[in-house]
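Lab notebook, design round three. We kept the backbone fixed and only want residue identities now. Task for the bench partner: fill in a sequence for the structure below.
Input C-alpha cells:
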C-alpha cells in the first residue's frame, strides 16, 4: 500500500511580524480545508536583532526605539485595515533601550517547543495576540512567563531553558536554517511534500498555496469545503480556542455580513463570548464558570 502523502508548510516567522499575524486566517483555512493531510510548522527567523541597528526603508522603521514604536504602530494599523486581524496602536511599545530586540520572543518559542511542539504553537499564537492586539511589550521576560503560564507551559522548565542556553542554541539552529534557504523577509513559506519542496516568499493567498499543492501532489491531496452551519463555526472556535471574525470568514468562506450574523446569533444563545482587542475583537466559546481542567490544574471563573 502506498504511503499516504501529507503537506508540510513551514513558516519562517517572528512572533511580532505583522504580516505573519495577518496570515493567520490563511493558515487556519489551510488547516480547516486539508485537515490531517496538512501540518504547519514554524522556523524562528529573528526579525530584529537590535532596532537601533535596523532600518526598514519601506516603512521608515528603525534607529531610535521610541520613534520606531510610533512608526511600527502606524504601519501595523494600516496593515490591519488590509488583512483584517485586530491591532492596538494606542500604548504600543514593542522596543525600548533595555529591550531593543525581538530575539527574546524567538528564543522563548524554542524554549517551549523543546518540551511540547503543540503547546509551543499555542504560545506563539498567544504572543502574537499580546503583541499585536493588546500592545504588550512581550520582549520582557516577566511578560513571556505570564503568557507561557496562560497556555499551560511548565514554567520551571521554561525558565530553565531560557537561562541555561539550550533555547538560544535551538534558536541559532533556526537562524542557520533561515540562512540556508536564503530567507530575508517574513513570512516566507516552505511547502514540502515528501522530497519535493517549494519556497514562497511573502504573504500568500489560499489560492496560491492550493495551486502549489496541486502542482506538487496532483490528485493525491485534495481540500474539502466545510458545510456552512452553526456547528461548523463552533467546532472551528473550539479547535483553535480563540479566533477573530476574519478567521471565521476566511476559513469557512462566509461573507462579512454572514460572519457578523452568525456571531451575533451564537452570542445571543450564549454559546460564545466576545473579547475586545485593539480595533477588533476575539471570539471564544462560552465557558462554564465552574469548570476546572484536571490536566492543567486551572479553574475558570
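Proposed sequence:
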Amino acid at each position: 500500500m502506498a504511503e499516504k502523502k501529507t503537506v508540510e508548510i513551514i513558516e519562517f516567522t517572528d512572533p511580532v511580524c505583522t504580516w505573519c499575524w495577518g496570515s493567520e486566517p490563511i493558515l487556519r483555512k489551510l488547516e480547516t480545508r486539508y485537515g490531517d493531510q496538512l501540518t504547519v510548522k514554524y522556523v524562528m527567523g529573528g526579525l530584529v536583532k537590535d532596532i537601533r541597528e535596523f532600518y526598514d526603508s519601506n516603512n521608515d522603521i528603525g534607529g531610535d526605539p521610541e520613534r520606531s514604536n510610533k512608526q511600527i504602530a502606524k504601519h501595523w494599523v494600516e496593515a490591519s485595515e488590509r488583512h483584517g486581524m485586530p491591532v492596538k496602536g494606542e500604548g504600543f511599545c514593542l522596543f525600548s533601550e533595555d529591550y531593543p530586540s525581538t530575539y527574546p520572543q524567538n528564543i522563548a518559542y524554542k524554549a517551549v517547543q523543546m518540551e511540547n511542539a503543540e503547546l509551543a504553537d499555542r504560545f506563539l499564537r498567544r504572543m502574537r495576540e499580546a503583541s499585536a492586539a493588546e500592545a504588550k511589550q512581550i520582549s520582557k521576560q516577566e511578560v513571556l512567563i505570564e503568557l507561557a503560564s496562560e497556555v499551560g507551559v511548565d514554567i520551571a522548565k521554561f525558565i530553565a531553558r531560557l537561562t541555561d542556553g539550550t533555547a538560544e542554541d535551538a534558536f541559532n539552529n533556526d537562524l542557520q536554517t533561515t540562512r540556508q534557504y536564503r530567507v530575508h523577509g517574513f513570512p516566507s513559506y516552505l511547502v514540502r511534500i515528501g522530497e519535493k519542496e517549494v519556497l514562497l516568499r511573502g504573504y500568500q493567498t489560499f489560492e496560491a498555496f492550493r495551486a502549489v499543492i496541486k502542482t506538487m501532489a496532483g490528485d493525491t491531496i485534495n481540500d474539502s469545503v466545510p458545510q456552512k452551519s452553526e456547528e461548523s463555526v463552533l467546532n472551528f472556535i473550539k479547535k483553535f480556542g480563540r479566533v477573530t471574525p476574519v478567521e471565521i470568514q476566511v476559513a469557512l468562506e462566509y461573507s462579512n455580513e454572514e460572519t457578523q450574523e452568525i456571531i451575533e446569533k451564537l452570542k445571543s444563545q450564549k454559546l460564545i463570548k466576545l473579547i475586545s482587542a485593539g480595533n477588533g475583537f476575539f471570539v471564544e466559546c462560552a465557558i462554564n464558570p465552574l469548570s476546572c481542567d484536571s490536566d492543567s490544574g486551572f479553574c475558570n471563573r
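Keep this in mind before ordering anything: The chain has two domains: 7-180, 230-299.
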